[in-house]
């Protein structure tokens, strides 16, 4: 990628764009279990739960324009799981299919130990083949298969949990 890709902690001013990117994935029914668009107000609490030192929400910028975002969220909310986080990646539809997913996932894998993360998890619908392949490319393994746990437009969908130990 010849263009300049940078990462920074998201600010509250970025939230409308973060929400817009997220909402752009809802209609496809492959990236999120939300079935209706969310609002900035809906996501305000979620935004405030991110901690730039341990559970960041980062925006990726390509030549100064937000092209996607990455978040790390706590898994299961109990102290014994403090070194495990769920990673989420969302890319603006104008930038999809250009290899940004690899850049974003590679970046967060590299940076996760600095956030105290030893294990990363990805919760992905089984029919979201591009995301499953992306995580597999980076050595994530299939750790769980939850059949028919979601229903999107009357179609039952499986959820796969992919995991990777960063520190053995």
Instruction: Please trace the helix and strand order, writing H or E for each element.
Output: EHHEEEHEHEE
How many domains is the backbone divided into? 1
Estimated structural class? alpha+beta
- Count of beta strands: 7
For the largest beta-sheet, the strand count, sense and barrel status come to: 7 strands, mixed
Average pLDDT value?
Answer: 95
Computed Rg:
15 Å
CATH superfamily heading: Gcn5-related N-acetyltransferase (GNAT)
Terminus-to-terminus distance: 31 Å
β content, as a range?
A: 35-45%
- Just name the CATH architecture: 3-Layer(aba) Sandwich
**CATH fold topology:** Aminopeptidase
Number of helices: 4
> Which stretches are poorly predicted, pLDDT < 50 over at least 5 residues?
none
- C-alpha geometry: globular
CATH class term = Alpha Beta
Helix content: 10-25%
